[in-house]
Amino acid sequence: TLKLIDPLMASAVVLLAVGMLGLAIGATAGMFGVVNTVLLDPLPYDHPDRLVYIAASAPGTDYPPEFEVGPEFYVQYKEQSHLLQDVSTFNSFTATLRVDNRVERVRMSWPTNSMYSTLGMRPILGRLPTPEDESRVAVISYPLWQSWFGGDTAVIGRAYEIAGEQRTVVGIMGPSFRFPDDGTLLWIGSEIRPEGIQPGQFFTRLVGRLAPGATPEAAARELSALARRLPERFGGPPSYARTIEKFQAVVRPLADQLLGPVSRPLWVLLGAVGIVLVIACANVANLFLVR
Questions:
Q1: Contacts of residue 91, Cβ cutoff 8 Å, sequence gap at least 6
Q2: 153-158 CB contacts, 8 Å cutoff, 24+ apart
């Protein structure tokens, strides 16, 4: 009887050890995969370390500690900044997309055409919007191309009802392009021209590409100085001039802006599963010591 029990106990110990280590290693590997994809290598763009988010602050005014800029900032920065290689507006909203008999509200963006050069991305098929296109064209995402059009290349050049108007599809982005978030399915072309801008409408989000060697801190100082000259160029009411007097540019890495709300919980979860792995290893060591 003892000869029979001993191998059974050994097998049970081995199975228990393998099970504990397998679960702990699997959880740790899975969590690390998420952290690696989301935090360590999150932006599939050209030189993502040079991409920055640009916002505004105006201490001593009625505005919140940080707020968005206006279209006049985009024009000023794009034309006169030496530390920004490129800059673009971006946004995210839902609107109606109609393709034949299929009609749904989908997430889309209406950035300036400089978004693609700012991020360093090109379409896998077709072309990018040009100033002459105005807002009559759109670029679609790879998931939209596959799910709505079955990967048919003939979609390029066709017009569909997008956000209430007929717009022609001119390009298809690759699978990794998901700006400003994973749910964005298409981008409408647009340009912002200096003529007709009404200053003081702070609803524009900006993404910029730093020039080689430039830092976010240096760019913030330059952009703050450029903003001081906005009332002289674009006019505006006295309240706008008072806001600009206290204006300070906010420039930080784009990864921090996009991932800030989720980064801390993910690191905490990774630390938690790491502790689970350590506990599992300690339990297995105790089992073999007892054995």
A1: 109, 110, 111, 180, 204, 205
A2: 153/125, 156/125, 156/126
Q: How far is CA 68 from its chain centroid?
A: 16
Give the residue among 177, 166, 116 at the shortest CA–CA distance from 141.
Answer: 177
User: Strand 102-109 relative to strand 93-99: parallel, antiparallel, unpaired?
Assistant: antiparallel
Distance of CA 232 to the CA centre of its chain: 34
Give CA angle at 72 (203, 48), nearest 5°.
70
Residue burial 82-104, b: 16+ Cβ < 10 Å; e: rest: ebbbbbbbbeeeeeebeeeeeee
Q: Is residue 166 packed enough to be buried (19+ CB in 10 Å), middle (13-18) or exposed (0-12)?
A: exposed
Cβ–Cβ < 8 Å for 91, 188: no
Q: What is the pLDDT along the chain (291 residues), one digit of tens a residue?
A: 444 445 666 666 667 667 766 776 766 666 555 444 444 455 789 899 999 999 999 999 999 999 999 999 999 999 999 999 999 999 999 999 999 999 999 999 999 999 999 999 999 999 999 999 999 999 999 999 999 999 999 999 999 999 999 999 999 999 989 899 889 999 999 999 998 899 999 999 999 999 999 999 999 999 999 999 999 999 999 999 999 999 999 999 998 887 655 445 554 555 665 676 677 677 667 766 766
| Residue 36: DSSP 8-state | I
d(CA 36, CA 53): 22
